[in-house]
């Protein structure tokens, strides 16, 4: 994010504060526009990144075992309300041609996909597509469980409710036993 973009955000935040009746010169709000611009630079960092390059592929001894990284914490912003949704992602794949990705790269992929305005349903698919692009596995399973602040603090006001989304490709989509094994591993 460049300085011009940050200035636009800062002025927009001031306008929102004025519109709700706040005094933008009040002590507690003086630095708020700058803080929000800095926060947006961080939480929307993937918007300006054109590609996920933080990837390392290794050779495995096997290409028929499930690799699962679960309970990956993430934060994203609902593109409908610009309020956070957050929770855990679970990503599994079965390697192809004995190609595996470094384990730490899977949480990095989740973060990369989450750092943009999004909806959970699409985020689930985006993670799977990115993994597919990087290692072309035999199959992928992604599950996300998240709480949405747009449901918790406004609208229906149901804090603590979670949304679960799933996406399967390749052998996870066609093999019920693999899908069941994935789901059982999440409990």
Mean pLDDT: 96
- CATH fold field value of the largest domain: GTP Cyclohydrolase I, domain 2
Instruction: Report the oligomer.
Output: single chain
Number of folding domains?
Answer: 2
Q: What would your notes on this structure say?
A:
The chain has 2 domains: 3-43, GTP cyclohydrolase I, N-terminal domain (GTP Cyclohydrolase I, Chain A, domain 1, Orthogonal Bundle), CATH 1.10.286.10; 57-185, 2-Layer Sandwich (GTP Cyclohydrolase I, domain 2). The chain is 39% helix and 26% strand. It has helices at 3-19, 32-43, 105-114, 120-135, 149-152, 171-174, 176-185, and strands at 57-59, 67-78, 84-94, 99-101, 117-118, 139-148, 163-170. The strands form 2 sheets. The protein has a 5-stranded mixed beta sheet with strand order 5-2-3-6-7. The chain has a two-stranded antiparallel ribbon with strand order 1-4. Strand 2 and strand 3 form a beta hairpin.
Which helices and strands, and how do they pair?
Layout: H1 3-19, H2 32-43, E1 57-59, E2 67-78, E3 84-94, E4 99-101, H3 105-114, E5 117-118, H4 120-135, E6 139-148, H5 149-152, E7 163-170, H6 171-174, H7 176-185
Parallel strand pairs: 2-5
Antiparallel strand pairs: 1-4, 2-3, 3-6, 6-7
Helix pairs in contact: 1-2, 3-4
Provide key terms for this protein.
elongated; alpha+beta; GTP Cyclohydrolase I, domain 2; GTP cyclohydrolase I activity; zinc ion binding; nucleotide-binding; 2 domains; 7 helices; 5-stranded mixed sheet; two-stranded antiparallel sheet; GTP_CycHdrlase_I_dom; GTP-binding
């Amino acid at each position: 994010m460049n300085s011009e973009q940050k200035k636009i955000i800062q002025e927009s935040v001031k306008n929102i504060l004025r519109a709700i009746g706040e005094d933008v010169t009040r002590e507690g709000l003086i630095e708020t526009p700058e803080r929000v611009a800095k926060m947006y630079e961080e939480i929307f960092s993937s918007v300006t990144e054109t590609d996920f390059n933080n990837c390392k592929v290794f050779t495995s001894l096997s290409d028929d075992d499930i690799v699962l990284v679960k309970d990956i914490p993430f934060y994203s912003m609902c593109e409908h309300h610009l309020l956070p949704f957050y929770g855990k992602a679970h990503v599994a794949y079965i390697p192809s041609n004995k190609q595996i990705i470094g384990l730490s790269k899977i949480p990095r992929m989740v973060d990369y996909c989450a750092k943009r305005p999004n909806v959970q349903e699409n985020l689930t698919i985006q993670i799977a597509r990115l993994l597919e692009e990087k290692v072309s596995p035999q199959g992928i399973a992604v599950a996300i469980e998240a709480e949405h602040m747009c449901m918790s603090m406004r609208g229906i006001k149901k804090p603590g409710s979670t949304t679960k989304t799933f996406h399967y490709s390749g052998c996870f989509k066609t093999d019920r036993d693999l899908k069941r094994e994935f789901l059982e591993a999440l409990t």
